[in-house]
Amino acid sequence: MVELDRRREEALRLHQQHRELTEAVAERQKKIEELEEDRKAGWASVQPLLEAAGVEDVEELREAIERSDRLRTLNEKLAGVVETLDQQGDGLAIEVIEEECRDVDIDGVRVREEAAEAELKVLGAQLEEAVVAWTEARRVFEAIGGDDAAARAAADCEEALAAMQDAAERYVRVRTSGMLLRWAVERYRKEKQGPLLKRAGELFRVLTRNSFERLEVRFDERDTMHLTGVRPDGKVVAVPGLSTGTEDQLFLALRIAAVEDYLARAVALPFVADDLFINFDPERSAAGFEVLGQLAERTQVLFYTHHPHLVDLARETLGVDVHVVTLGDAA
To answer: Where residue 235 falls among pLDDT bands split at 50, 70, 90?
Structure first.
């Protein structure tokens, strides 16, 4: 009887275990069916992407997506570079900017950039020292108090007043001299600026190959004069908006105009040019030699360069009038 009860309980336990396993299997089967449905839905959504990308499996699709992401990143960088060129390139086309930059001395630009960064560091250190000194002076000023300190402060005040009186007298003299100097400069500007500016504009037009038509002096909102270049379509470009090469051409135009004005009323002296065309493209370098050739009709022009292609360009532009001396062969 006891054995029958044990077997009955064991049978009930096995029956219960069988039912639980059957339910678990049914639950797992249901989960498998749900996952299969999800797989089919996922594949249905991936299939159009495979067709659009022209690939056959998911791994190739993943690689295509990565390539697409890299292409989008490169296009964004390219758009940023184009925007920078539009902002800093005088409004010129990319092809023109590329031509202007072809003969630019990159090493020289890098050296100037490093020098500017070094100067900024020095100025930053000086600023920090000034801030420390100001802080200490402020602390001392706020700490003034008591009989001795007040007496010293009063003495310092009297000394400062005496120094201020002396400074005021010197200021009056300097201020008067400055007013007289400005009056003289303004008088000279009125007499000379018109012809000089006109001639410099003509030279600037030649040097930039008609990229600019003339030069003008304009006033900003503070009534401060600024030199500007005017393009043939009337667009005005301030000096800070010019490229490095165009700035050099502007400087050369102003310099030659001043030299021509000087030659009209003084003894001619040689005009020395030391590698003026470093930032010029070949076309504008040729224009520069044309301008120097005109100046050479009135005074001697000495052009120093260590670029052989400029020697060839000078010969092509000016012909037999160019006298070339190679300094290495002079000995």
So the answer is: very high
